[in-house]
Amino acid sequence: MRTNSNAFIMEKRNVFQKQSTRLFMAALAGLLAIQTPGFGQGTAMAAKAATPVDLTGYWVSVVTTLDWRFRMVLPPRGDYFGVRMTPAATKIADAWDPAKDEAAGEQCKSFGAAGIMRVPGRLHITKPDDKTLRIDIDAGTQTRIFHFGDWKAPGGEPTWQGDSVASWDTSGSGGLKVVTTHMRPGYLRRNGVPYSANAVLTEYYDVVKEKSGVQRIVLTSSVDDPTYLAGPFAGSVHFKKQADGAGWDPSACSAKW
């Protein structure tokens, strides 16, 4: 699942430049506790307009060598590299016990919105109507719904996938911005690194295309959580488009993989 394609690297150059800017703005927003003006505000108000990028179809995770230790295997307790945690978060992570999570019915903690896209697996993205985008995820059999326009959250108890509001970026790549709140507390990483109900997940979905015709999603995300993070947890993952649903394999949540 690794890519060494020079053509792909060249195709992504402009997108990665934009991703770097987005990560910087997300970090700045976290430090200043302000909301950075979003991309594509105009189209958020006119969701019935043609979408700039077609994200629909089947996609599979691409795991790089750098990400392998955190995504393809269950990281050991205490391996928190790259996460700026508060003392409260460290205490929780140090006490992580997957058997206890399973016994308590909390086996989906790693499959909530703030962590699910880093769990290797497949996506099936559909557009039920002009105001929603749906992502079915076979890892943990989870479903995320992105709402466009002036949608209002129904309230109630937080859920694993939270409430997601989306808007299109028409200024450049035509990517998608998604902000998710009202999430049930879970794990950023599968070894117990926590995020709280106060966490805010901001994501940018960009599509790049290789000269061979292969399409990939470059997903840049940032989690801000005043309870458990001393700074934004930001990163990027990739998905490659599939011709069909071959390999689609929904599986139940587990605290052990």
Q: What would your notes on this structure say?
A:
It is a single chain. This protein is of the alpha+beta class and 257 residues long. The chain has one domain (6-242). Helix content is 21%, strand content 28%. It is built from 6 helices and 11 strands. The chain has helices at residues 6-32, 41-44, 68-71, 87-94, 98-103, 113-116; strands at residues 57-62, 122-129, 132-137, 142-147, 163-168, 176-181, 186-187, 194-195, 200-209, 215-224, 233-242. A hairpin with a 6-residue loop joins strand 7 (186-187) and strand 8 (194-195).
Topology, element by element:
Layout (H helix, E strand, L loop, with lengths): L5 H27 L8 H4 L12 E6 L5 H4 L15 H8 L3 H6 L9 H4 L5 E8 L2 E6 L4 E6 L15 E6 L7 E6 L4 E2 L6 E2 L4 E10 L5 E10 L8 E10 L15
Parallel strand pairs: 4-5
Antiparallel strand pairs: 1-2, 1-11, 2-3, 3-4, 5-6, 6-9, 7-8, 9-10, 10-11
Helix content: 10-25%
How many beta strands in the DSSP annotation? 11
Span between N and C termini? 19 Å
Please, what is the average pLDDT? 83
Low-pLDDT runs: 1-16, 23-49
Number of domains: 1
Strand order of the largest sheet: 1-2-3-4-5-6-9-10-11
Using the alpha-carbon principal axes, give the shape: globular
Largest sheet: 9 strands, mixed, barrel
Strand fraction equals: 25-35%
What are the secondary-structure elements, in order, as H or E?
A: HHEHHHHEEEEEEEEEE
Gyration radius (Cα, Å) is: 18 Å
In terms of structural class, how would the helical and strand content be classed? alpha+beta
- Count of alpha/pi helices: 6
